[in-house]
Fold this protein.
Amino acid sequence: MSEPLVRPAVLDDAEAIAVVHHTAWVQTYSDLLPADHWESDTVERRAQQWHERLSDDVPGSFSVAVVDEQMVGFARAGAARRKDRVPPPVRPDELWALYVLSERHGTGIGALLLDAVLPPPAPAELWVADANPRARRFYAKHGFTPDGARFTDDRNFVLIRMVR
């Protein structure tokens, strides 16, 4: 395996990001979501969404990790967002997304992506599924701690906020 290359995302990455995003969701959340969820949550739908997101000029940082010319992860961060039914932000920046294919867990790629979009020790926050202990341990290892804020999203996932 070659060393991972972490670089800024570009518009041409939309489909590969969608594959990583969808695959990571299947790997992580299949047991937590009803089977019919996957009828609408498809790689094609996610590719369209990522194409639109990458086309928008939204300030923030968006990086991808590539190994042997295959996308294996991505991370996106920016200004902390205000959302309906969600406790207001307590840090200036937010990790919006970080996904790594399960076969690359434990290789350091997640840490490289996190540092690329939110260099430590910058104060930041993130929301993580309470039912995802692996992710919670990863973020704790990188200086994030739960602050007690939580909410239930549209998929019935309980999300907890972690801050550093």
About this structure: The longest strand covers residues 70-79.
